[in-house]
Amino acid sequence: MNLEQYQAATAETAIYPGQGSIMGLAYCGLKLNGEVAELLPTRNRELALKELGDVMWYTSQICTELGAKLGNFETTAPLSMVDTPDLLFKHSGIIAEQIGKAMRDDSGHVSANRCAIILDNIAMIVKQVSGIAYILNSNLETVLDDNIAKLADRKARGVLQGSGDNR
């Protein structure tokens, strides 16, 4: 599955407050940070790959909220750029900061400049996830496929909403 297909598939499982508004964007920004925080201490390969899928889901939703296409981003990064998942936290933090500033300073309007900053950091997250997947002997496409399969299963069982991996 490529990024464009993935973004379309995530729409099938997108249930969150404020969709299509600054509140939906803020929710996705907060949750992106949470997923990155769950990834950072993970030393289990399979769990890390699942968390990367969750990072990509919120990344995709931020693009959707901004009217951007996830498929426009490059998915490969030199290994020097993917030395550590800590960089994911940096980029997700910058995204959250820009969303917060839009809420505080611009009455919830995301200016073209803020949008560009957010999308630049989305690009870095996509590269980082791709690189980390590679380091874990996987690839971005597998991360995306597995994430959609997990969510499709939850949808079929009526347990998309809720917390935890064991739904």
Written account of the structure:
The structure is a single chain. The protein has helices spanning 3-10, 22-39, 45-66, 86-105, 112-135, 140-156. The chain has 167 residues and is mainly alpha-helical. The longest helix is centred in the C-terminal third of the chain and has 24 residues, at 112-135.
What brief labels describe this structure?
about 170 residues
Distance between the termini: 24 Å
Q: What is the ordering of alpha helices and beta strands?
A: HHHHHH
Major β-sheet profile: none
Q: Which structural category fits the helices and strands?
A: mainly alpha
| Share in β-strands | under 5%
Instruction: Quickly count the helices.
Output: 6
**Apparent shape:** globular
Averaging pLDDT over every residue, what do you get?
A: 91
Low-confidence stretches: none
Amount of helix: 55-70%
The structural domain count equals 1
Output the radius of gyration: 15 Å
> What's the count of strands?
0
